[in-house]
Amino acid sequence: MDNSSIPESAPPVIDRPARSRSPARLVLLGLGLALLAVLLFLFGRDKFGEPAVLAVLGGLAGLGVFFLFAQVLGFIRLTAQQHSDTFATQLVDGMDAGLVVTDADGRIVYANRAYADLLGAQNENEVASVETVFSRRMEASEIVYRMTNAARGGNSAIEEFRLSSGLKSGDEGARWFRLRVRAMRHGDFPKPLAVWQISDITADRKRQESAFQELQNAIHYLDHAPAGFLASEKDGSIVYMNATLADWLGIDLATFEPGKVDLSDLVLGDGMALLAAVRPDNRGAKTSVIDLDLAKSNGKPLPVRLYHRVPVTPDGAPGVSRTIVVNRMLGEEAGDPLRAAEVRFTRFFNNTPVAIASLSADGSIRRVNAPFQRMFAGVIGRKGGVEALKIGDLASGEARGPLDAAWAEAIAGQAQIKPVDVPLEGENGGHVRFFISPVTGEEESEGGEDDRVIIYVLDMSEQRALQEQFAQGQKMQAVGQLAGGVAHDFNNVLTAIIGFSDLLLASHRPSDRSFQDIMNIKQNANRAASLVRQLLAFSRRQTLRPQVIQLGDVLSDLRMLLARVLGEKVDLQVVHGRELWPVKADVSQFEQVVVNLAVNARDAMPEGGKLTIRTANIAAADVPRLYHYKEMPAADYVLLEVEDEGTGMSPEVMEKIFEPFFSTKEVGKGTGLGLSTVYGIVKQTGGFIYPASEMGKGTVFRVFLPRHIPTAAEVAEASNVVEDIRKEKPRDLTGSAVILLVEDEDAVRAFASRALTSRGYEVHEASSGAEALEIYTERGSGFDLVISDVVMPEMDGPTLFRELRKSEPEQKFIFMSGYAEEAFARNLPEADREAFGFLPKPFSLKQLATTVKDVLEG
Question: Which of 210, 595, 817, 854 has the highest local Cβ count within 10 Å?
Fold first, then answer.
């Protein structure tokens, strides 16, 4: 490019730099030094001596010579520095936008030629400041005033505004301007300057208005086209819908918001699977023709044909899809029986719950329905489309062999072909069953190729899951039985450990070095006993008993456990109701209800969230007003609410959540017994449980437990218990009775015998029920008390009890067992169920002695 063709920057209209005061200061400094030299010469010789005065004068002379040389060489300048260098000046002067700089008093410091041209000014005298120019224009005066205040505050501002006419006297018609201002500091000015930049953007505005009008025309043409049109994001949200399609579907475009309606809300059946299968390939955008039904606002179906095009973005991902919608109920042939039959077939073909596909002779899949697209979406996506699929791609691993064999039988024309079960790939897994059938007839399909085989595929995932859940239930039952047996054996071991620890503690003083070690052994044995009780509860060999409880106290005790179970992602909040009424329930059962509901809430919030547990009193008068549950009568209840912020549940899921084995979790991650157990516990307690849920907003379970009103006898009994505790004194646990101890576990028998002997009792030991019966017969009864284990070889405890009662109906008896009392009491005659004492294992020395004393004195 020829540099001579570039025009030079026009000179500024106004350029008033501030004058430097450096030369004046230098002159004053020189005069001061000269005056100092004269004073030294006249008066310094007598005071300082002539050599000193000459030395100072010589130094001043040297400074003067140095200053002269520095000035000659250019290190020191006595004139003011230029306002700006040449480069910056030409850059600013050459700007297309008008630029004007004013000081704090509103005087113009600088204005370029472009600014003068905007005003139509010919010389400096005709140039006015921005404030002056626009203060006379009502459309802009307020804007300029606001921007001036912003600049004075050290801020910047930008505004666009419209004037009814231009700034020059010859301008006609409305003009648009863009005005900028910013504060600038300069060393020559004590206060900040205001830098104004003004541009005439009328041409840009006209181009924008023209483009907008063209766009409006295009939208008008598209809205009134004879075909429907919509555009949707890759997540399915509809960003545009024309008026024709909206009219067909009964949608009011005035209330339609882009992105608020999803394509899946309009497509009926499994039609979304057909749309999801349309993906761009290596050659770019892809267009597919799809027949399906759309849902009208009144719920009726609209048969349509879609020309669905999915473009590809520069990074290779699917872009915003464009879809032309043709109403298949319109047109000249709408009443043609063939057209009606085609529409009905398409509807049946795509809305059947069975996946259907036709295959050619080489195993290529030719036609599929919507359920097939949905069922094998993962395989279709990996292969790049249905047209690339073959029969062998639908199975993998060991399942491919049986499927290929069934395919070969169909090609050979065999009529009866055994169904083939194939596991589905992907995250959700599942199982499907293939029914393969050869095509009979001579009809040829499109393209001149025959459809040789039809395959029907049923989703067997739910049935397989039910089978696995049933097997899981059986396994859980077997595990429960195993846990019960293990717990029983552990109880015997723990009884011996705790008992011998008590014997050791009785012979050691707290000051002994080994005393603390023995205490640690006993404490850990008690912890193990707590775990064994949980195993017994799991195996359902521990009968749980209801009692009067306060829900607030139980929840406070459970809070630490819930915090550990829920993890760090879940924010647990417990809101206690005031003055809660008492309820009668089993503490362990109620804790299981709370824990199960909390765990379900945690699983519904995989990314974390807030779990709120509330309690409140609900009076009988408020029940009909607040809750509309037909099964729940009006009564006083204590309400427990467990609310989460999870994924929520659909109405179909909520209908089944309390069914045994029903679970929304993946196979192997839940038995489906949690909520059914909760339901059973609540019902056994006499309460009610109701869920409320909304997809995407969470779930709340409301548990209503009946208020317990204690009877006069219960109040008196509670008062007596408190009084007895208050007056309780150390009890004498010694005795002289004769006791028959029956226990097959040597360690337990040895501990119990030593413990009772140390308390003064005469103890006779037997290792089985049969041996005990022999000792009892030989002695001719004479036993004040019989203590027997329940589970023993040859003859168990209940059998021994019945045999001894035959000869001695009043014989006092104590059962020892790791199981609950009710677990074996039900096997005894009705009259004998209250005629014995019970000592649960593991027990301590004090518990043994106390139980023996109570039975002997009873």
Answer: 817
CA 707 to centroid of chain Cα atoms: 36
334-376 pLDDT, tens digit per residue, is 556 666 666 666 666 676 778 888 888 888 887 888 788 778 8
Write out the two tokens for 822. 């009710």
Does position 125 have pLDDT exceeding 50, yes or no? yes
Q: Where are the alpha helices (DSSP H) in 730-839?
A: 746-758, 769-779, 797-807, 821-825
Neighbours of 772 (CB within 10 A): 27
Pairing between strand 228-232 and 238-241?
Answer: antiparallel
Q: Both tokens of residue 477?
A: 């039952």
- Structure tokens belonging to residue 10: 């026009």
**C-alpha closest to that of 775 among 784, 765, 785:** 765
CA distances to 40, 42, 531 from 47, rounded to whole Å, are 9, 10, 108
pLDDT over 50 at 414, yes or no: yes
DSSP E strands, 583-687: 583-585, 609-618, 637-643
Reduced to 3 states, what is the DSSP secondary structure of residue 661?
coil
What does 235-285 look like in DSSP terms, one character per residue? TSBEEEE-HHHHHHHT--GGG--TTTSBHHHHB-TTHHHHHHT---BTTB-
* Enclosing H/E stretch for 117: helix 113-119
Task: Write the burial class of residue 152 (CB in 10 Å: 0-12 exposed, 13-18 middle, 19+ buried).
Answer: middle
Q: How far is CA 800 from the centre of its chain?
A: 60
Instruction: Mention every residue, 6+ apart, whose C-beta is less than 8 A from residue 614.
Output: 574, 575, 577, 639, 640, 641, 643
Name the residue with tokens 């609950």.
820
Amino acid at 750: A
Query: Contact 176/185 with Cβ under 8 angstroms?
Result: no
* pLDDT number for residue 706: 93
The answer to whether 456 touches 369, Cβ cutoff 8 Å, is no
DSSP 8-state class, residue 318: B
Question: Between residues 503 and 147, which one has the greater pLDDT?
Answer: 147
Terminus-to-terminus CA distance in the chain, angstroms? 122
Question: Which has the closest alpha carbon to 540: 580, 493, 597, 481?
Answer: 481
- Token pair recorded at residue 153: 């505050």
The CB-side HSE value for 766 (13 A sphere, CA atoms) comes to 25
Q: What pTM value is reported for the model?
A: 0.39
Helices 674-684 and 587-603, interaxial angle, to 10°? 150
Among residues 491, 487, 486, 492, which one has the least CA distance to residue 746? Answer: 492
376-398 mean pLDDT: 77
Q: Which residues have a Cβ under 8 Å from the Cβ of 820 and sit 6 or more positions away? A: 536, 541, 542, 543, 840
Run of H or E residues at 432? strand 431-438
- Reported as a pLDDT band with limits 50, 70 and 90, residue 613 is very high
Angstrom distance (rounded) from CA 818 to CA 744? 13
Per DSSP bridges, beta strands 762-766 and 738-742 are parallel
User: Which helix (H) or strand (E) segment is 292 a member of?
Assistant: strand 286-295
- Cα separation, 555 vs 590, in Å, equals 10
Q: What are the counts of helices (DSSP H) followed by strands (DSSP E) for the chain?
A: 27, 28
Q: Which two tokens stand for residue 371?
A: 């359920």
How many other C-beta atoms can be found within 10 angstroms of the C-beta atom of residue 13? 24
Residue at 436: amino acid letter = I
φ, ψ of residue 258 in degrees (nearest 5)? -55, 135
Place of tokens 């008690």: 526
Contact 279, 310 (CB under 8 A): yes
Which residues, listed in sequence order, are joined to residue 837 by a DSSP beta bridge? 814
pLDDT score of 53 = 63
Residue pair 613/593 in contact (Cβ under 8 Å)? The answer is: no
Beta partners for residue 355, in sequence order: 457
Residue 713 · residue 720 · CB < 8 Å: no
Question: pLDDT grade, residue 798 (50/70/90)?
Answer: confident
Residue 418 has pLDDT above 70, yes or no: yes
DSSP E strands in 311-364: the ranges are 321-327, 355-359
DSSP state of 550: -
